[in-house]
Design brief:
It contains five helices and eleven strands, in the order βαββββαβαβαββββα. It is of the alpha/beta class. It has a six-stranded parallel sheet, sandwiched between helices. The relative contact order is 0.21. The chain binds zinc ion. It is an enzyme of class 2 (transferase).
Length: 190
Amino acid sequence: MAKLYYRYGTMQSNKSNQIITTHHQYTTQGKQCLAYSTPIDTRSGYRKIKSRIGLELVCEYITDTIYDDVKAIHEKNRVHAVVVDEAQFLSKKDVHRLSDIADDLDIPVICFGLKTDFRNQLFQGSQVLLELADAIDELKTICQFCNKKATLNMRLLDGRPTNVGETIQIGDEEYVPVCRKCYKERLGLD
Ligand SMILES: [Zn+2]
């Protein structure tokens, strides 16, 4: 039985690099791996995943027909894996369809994304993935301000920490990974 995976991390936790590497590992063995991202993230340009160390991967955007699309490709030419970037922006239905790809088509689906936003609230896609995924892994990085493990994302507005504003914000420059202690201290929380 194929699994639905969720690999989550904070900003700068190497997610894009990991997804590109995972895709590369399949394709160098001659195994077809389909790469998707969520249409809400156009930061990388049209249908392209970019990592901070300069790797790139062309991908499709997730749509309502994701299950049928993967099934049709799989019937012609076996699909060995599906990878999904920016999975925090998936809808509940998207995640259900991805779980059907694992369960009914027996294709592993590996999702990468942010767990929480800068207000430290779960993204919808992350919530459903945490509820449904068979395997959940944390991609680790260190706090911007100390050497502890970062577990939260801090929004910097004009260089100053804030936890107000729109939920969905794109643009790495304004977001940094922080530990819980620094998050509370810098935002003046109890
Ligand atoms: Zn810290």
